[in-house]
């Protein structure tokens, strides 16, 4: 048995309805996963499962989610080992924890797509690719940056963003 982290790209089902974490934990149990627990209300799930490849878990979770909630949502799954590796490689640990964000990618981000983001950056912002994931230090509120709106699935690939506080919180949950 292994520990896994699942990150939902969105928990918004309709403008009036979001998935609550209790329902996400229930879905994990219905799919046969053990000890599901969540961190904050933004679609962060930690659970135990038989040794499976993360991609198999992504497919299983995405299909289960769509069946239960009627909407497809991209879900990125990492093993506990790969999550700890991600957490240990933050290139911007000197940045503000709520302004440093990692876009956790299903497949490694294309360096050409990262280059295309650079003209959108303002002074003080930094980006780096580590282990195929895109780290960004927004050096200010992410919502006030042109860079944030460019980080779409269509432009960058399937992935989802988490700030450094959440990355550390999930790491603490699996230690």
From TrEMBL:
Q: Which Pfam family, any one, appears in the UniProt record?
A: DUF1697
Task: Provide the protein name.
Answer: DUF1697 domain-containing protein
Q: Which organism is it from?
A: Rhizobium ruizarguesonis
């Amino acid at each position: 048995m292994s520990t896994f982290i699942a990150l939902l790209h969105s928990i918004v089902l309709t403008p009036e309805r979001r998935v609550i974490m209790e329902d996400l934990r229930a879905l994990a149990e219905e799919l046969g996963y053990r000890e599901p627990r969540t961190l904050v209300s933004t679609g962060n799930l930690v659970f135990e499962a038989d040794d499976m490849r993360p991609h198999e878990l992504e497919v299983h979770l995405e299909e289960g989610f769509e069946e239960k909630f009627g909407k497809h949502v991209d879900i990125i799954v990492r093993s506990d080992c790969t999550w700890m590796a991600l957490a240990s490689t933050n290139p911007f640990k000197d940045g503000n924890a709520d302004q440093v964000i990692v876009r956790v990618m299903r497949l490694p981000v294309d360096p050409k797509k990262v280059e295309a983001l650079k003209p959108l950056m303002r002074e003080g912002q930094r980006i780096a690719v580590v282990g195929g994931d895109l780290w960004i230090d927004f050096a200010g509120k992410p919502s006030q940056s042109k860079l944030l709106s460019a980080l779409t699935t269509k432009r960058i690939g399937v992935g989802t963003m988490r700030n450094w506080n959440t990355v550390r919180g999930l790491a603490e949950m699996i230690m």
